[in-house]
């Protein structure tokens, strides 16, 4: 009871200075809880950052591997780009070699037939490879696909009509490889 009387007689300032009272402790508990919460958040953030960094490193390595593989494939494609075409071209060469080997004993008709068959083989090969002939005989001159190497005036023929194809042109998959070299009808008086 004396203790109770003593505590009731204490002023607020006395209570604050009393060794029994610990008003700092509740604030300290709150700060401790906040610190623990912040440390937990920091650890979680650091873990996420490590995970993102590792994911970034893996992705960067994958991209580098992909770049190297693509470069190897392009180099390989360049080295072997003609392989298929050349393997199909070899029968044409074989046919020409057979014709040359049998040359002295063959008649002109036989040689001509052999050349025609060889030309047919070559034309089929070019078609399979996507190469189209540009043979514009009788068409209007088109500077995008034709090269005029001369003009002739022919009565009854419109100007700019192709009179003669000196050398056929070729297109590969829609792209001009070589323009057709042609003689074009000129206008009268030119």
TrEMBL record:
<feature type="coiled-coil region">
    <location>
        <begin position="53"/>
        <end position="80"/>
    </location>
</feature>
<dbReference type="InterPro" id="IPR000740">
    <property type="entry name" value="GrpE"/>
</dbReference>
<keyword id="KW-0346">Stress response</keyword>
<keyword id="KW-0143">Chaperone</keyword>
<dbReference type="GO" id="GO:0051087">
    <property type="term" value="F:protein-folding chaperone binding"/>
</dbReference>
<dbReference type="GO" id="GO:0051082">
    <property type="term" value="F:unfolded protein binding"/>
</dbReference>
<dbReference type="InterPro" id="IPR013805">
    <property type="entry name" value="GrpE_CC"/>
</dbReference>
<feature type="region of interest" description="Disordered">
    <location>
        <begin position="1"/>
        <end position="38"/>
    </location>
</feature>
<dbReference type="GO" id="GO:0006457">
    <property type="term" value="P:protein folding"/>
</dbReference>
<dbReference type="Pfam" id="PF01025">
    <property type="entry name" value="GrpE"/>
</dbReference>
<dbReference type="GO" id="GO:0000774">
    <property type="term" value="F:adenyl-nucleotide exchange factor activity"/>
</dbReference>
<keyword id="KW-0963">Cytoplasm</keyword>
<protein>
    <submittedName>
        <fullName>GrpE nucleotide exchange factor</fullName>
    </submittedName>
</protein>
<feature type="compositionally biased region" description="Basic and acidic residues">
    <location>
        <begin position="1"/>
        <end position="19"/>
    </location>
</feature>
<dbReference type="InterPro" id="IPR009012">
    <property type="entry name" value="GrpE_head"/>
</dbReference>
<comment type="similarity">
    <text>Belongs to the GrpE family.</text>
</comment>
<dbReference type="GO" id="GO:0005829">
    <property type="term" value="C:cytosol"/>
</dbReference>
<comment type="subunit">
    <text>Homodimer.</text>
</comment>
<dbReference type="GO" id="GO:0042803">
    <property type="term" value="F:protein homodimerization activity"/>
</dbReference>
<keyword id="KW-0175">Coiled coil</keyword>
């Amino acid at each position: 009871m004396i203790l109770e009387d003593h505590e009731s007689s204490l002023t607020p300032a006395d209570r604050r200075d009393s060794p029994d009272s610990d008003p700092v402790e509740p604030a300290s508990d709150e700060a401790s809880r906040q610190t623990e919460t912040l440390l937990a958040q920091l650890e979680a953030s650091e873990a996420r950052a490590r995970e993102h960094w590792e994911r970034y490193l893996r992705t960067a390595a994958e991209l580098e591997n992909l770049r190297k593989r693509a470069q190897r494939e392009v180099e390989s494609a360049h080295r072997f780009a003609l392989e298929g075409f050349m393997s199909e071209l070899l029968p044409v060469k074989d046919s020409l070699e057979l014709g040359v080997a049998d040359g002295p004993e063959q008649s002109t008709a036989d040689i001509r037939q052999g050349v025609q068959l060889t030309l047919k083989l070559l034309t089929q090969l070019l078609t399979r490879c996507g190469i189209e002939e540009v043979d514009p005989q009788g068409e209007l001159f088109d500077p995008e696909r034709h090269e005029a190497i001369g003009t002739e005036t022919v009565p009854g023929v419109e100007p700019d009509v192709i009179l003669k194809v000196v050398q056929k042109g070729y297109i590969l998959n829609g792209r001009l490889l070589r323009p057709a070299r042609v003689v074009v009808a000129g206008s009268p008086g030119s």
